[in-house]
């Protein structure tokens, strides 16, 4: 039976993934959240004519010769309206952000003036309307300024605050439960036996999922024991997590018990194994309302599958658009012919003298080696059955 392609596998995974519920959060808690509805301005910005400078509010047509002396009738500070109207041959000392007094049509910056007690001399020519921000100059009430699907950064939050929104509707962060399995694993900081290794994949997957926008439920490490694995799976289901990610144990060896435990728990298996390198033993299914993604145990396989499949799942739950972008580059090395599995090869990019992006392969592509994955900044994507190519030939890359 032919293995599923990467594209077909992704389609099956995303087919029944729904956008998460909507919740309201304060501006303080909205960083990196995804806006769930269009956001309208509830007021004009600025809400009145305001001064863009520290200086003097005047009537421009009073300045017919230089210097022109005007009488100062008071001060206008930010946060307060000047109580009186401005008349000919008068000036009001004004500060940045203050409402412009009635009757004034220009603000002269203080550097172009000279004050003498209750009078100010205008020393340079003025342009009518200068240094005044009109009401609604930035935006107007009911303008839609932030669209649904916007991933909120400090820039968007500043705008939302100025629009007078203290609470924002966002998609709930999906909860991803992560379960590592294997007698060979111990946590960082513990002392492994001579036959054990330090668990690393769970930290990588958790960090990556959090970066995309998910919350994490850490299920720890389950030993190669059917009862222990089954009990841990039950915890995830009982917590109603959005997705259970298992790491390792999804093959069919005597110690690979995860797939069997999931089936006994009632998982509807979508597929197991795909035409991909690294990452062939990928599992996907559904356990009640919980999505299940079984990642391979080899670190590079696990992280590559998270990039290609977990990321799009989380992004769809968050109402986000395209999960990742395949870009064009130039290969820095000759590439061998590929077999029936689509390959993802660790590489690092640089710009050549012609301004082209060149992707140079790491010499060892073993899926257990984390050091090269950490040093890489992209994966060269080799389609199934791609012919051999020479150095300098076009290639496709996926940024890490």
Characterize the structure shown.
- 19% of the residues lie in helices and 31% in strands.
- It has helices at residues 6-14, 154-162, 201-212, 226-238, 258-264, 299-317, 370-375; strands at residues 22-26, 39-40, 50-51, 55-58, 68-76, 90-94, 106-109, 113-116, 119-122, 132-133, 144-146, 167-171, 175-181, 185-186, 197-198, 215-222, 243-247, 268-272, 276-277, 283-287, 290-295, 326-331, 342-351, 357-361, 378-382, 394-399.
- The strands form 7 sheets. The protein has a 6-stranded mixed sheet, with no helix packed on it. It has a 6-stranded mixed sheet with strand order 16-13-17-21-20-18, with helices on both faces. The chain has a 5-stranded mixed β-barrel with strand order 22-24-23-25-26.
- The two termini are 32 Å apart.
